[in-house]
Amino acid sequence: MATDDPMLRTDGLVKEFGNFAAIDGVDIAVQPGEFRSIIGPNGAGKTTMFNLISGGLDATEGAVYFDGEDVTDLPPEERIQRGMGRSFQISNIFGGLTVRENVRLAVQSRMRDSYSFREALFKPTGRYDDINDETDEILGRIDLADIAEEEAAALPYGDKRRLEIGVVLATEPELVLFDEPTAGMGPEETQSTIDLIEEVLVEQTLILVEHDIELVMEISDMITVLNHGQVLAEGTPEEIADNQDVQDAYLGGMTE
Ligand SMILES: Nc1ncnc2c1ncn2[C@@H]1O[C@H](COP(=O)(O)OP(=O)(O)OP(=O)(O)O)[C@@H](O)[C@H]1O
């Protein structure tokens, strides 16, 4: 990638459903290493934007550039292969496998040129020192080494989220997309999930699509506020907090 390329850029992005533009000419540029949040009131277009970036939806107009390359027409799997990771609201975890097997499979999937999935799972573990070492390292980073032999399905909610982050990490993404990662969590679990994201994914560029404005104020480098499918405001948390348009549209919307 050229050094001055943003990690993720959208150019005149439009997504129409019938005659209705859910995303209506959005330009964003997220720099390498940045923690960007995309927020907005109900129906603003956040989920649509997430899906346009990840490839879950095709753009009606405009383009998505990842690492300086046009990925607008690439399916999600190819975007993942190029280094876009996604977490939450998609099931990355195999409940019937252990914690270790889940991480190992994800490490393996990245190295699939050297070994098949089947080999990774069923061949004697000692023969794959590189895969095992990396698996152990990730288990340590997500703090699940002690329960590595437990079945994923049996984990408490918070530990499942940790495992999901481990699975994403194993694919060595440059960019990780999160869609409301703390939805359904209480305050304590929300904080520990955010701490984990910040601690484990420190080198990655992060894009978080989120409803909770207080949460994004605390954790983001930059915030993009969407309203009616357009960028209403963009700036640091301080700039967004002071922005009258945002207060009118978003904070007003929250008290409905
Ligand atoms: N598949 C679809 N077909 C038709 N309209 C859609 C579709 N998906 C989204 N929309 C509409 O596009 C607009 C934006 O929806 P989107 O889900 O992206 O918003 P959001 O900001 O994520 O909202 P919320 O916070 O309520 O989840 C909404 O008016 C929604 O009804």
From TrEMBL:
<dbReference type="GO" id="GO:0005886">
    <property type="term" value="C:plasma membrane"/>
</dbReference>
<dbReference type="InterPro" id="IPR032823">
    <property type="entry name" value="BCA_ABC_TP_C"/>
</dbReference>
<dbReference type="InterPro" id="IPR003593">
    <property type="entry name" value="AAA+_ATPase"/>
</dbReference>
<protein>
    <recommendedName>
        <fullName>Probable branched-chain amino acid transport ATP-binding protein LivG</fullName>
    </recommendedName>
</protein>
<dbReference type="InterPro" id="IPR051120">
    <property type="entry name" value="ABC_AA/LPS_Transport"/>
</dbReference>
<keyword id="KW-0029">Amino-acid transport</keyword>
<keyword id="KW-0547">Nucleotide-binding</keyword>
<dbReference type="GO" id="GO:0005524">
    <property type="term" value="F:ATP binding"/>
</dbReference>
<dbReference type="InterPro" id="IPR027417">
    <property type="entry name" value="P-loop_NTPase"/>
</dbReference>
<comment type="similarity">
    <text>Belongs to the ABC transporter superfamily.</text>
</comment>
<keyword id="KW-0067">ATP-binding</keyword>
<dbReference type="GO" id="GO:0006865">
    <property type="term" value="P:amino acid transport"/>
</dbReference>
<dbReference type="GO" id="GO:0016887">
    <property type="term" value="F:ATP hydrolysis activity"/>
</dbReference>
<feature type="domain" description="ABC transporter">
    <location>
        <begin position="8"/>
        <end position="253"/>
    </location>
</feature>
<dbReference type="Pfam" id="PF12399">
    <property type="entry name" value="BCA_ABC_TP_C"/>
</dbReference>
<dbReference type="Pfam" id="PF00005">
    <property type="entry name" value="ABC_tran"/>
</dbReference>
<keyword id="KW-0813">Transport</keyword>
<dbReference type="InterPro" id="IPR003439">
    <property type="entry name" value="ABC_transporter-like_ATP-bd"/>
</dbReference>
<comment type="function">
    <text>Probable component of a branched-chain amino-acid transport system.</text>
</comment>
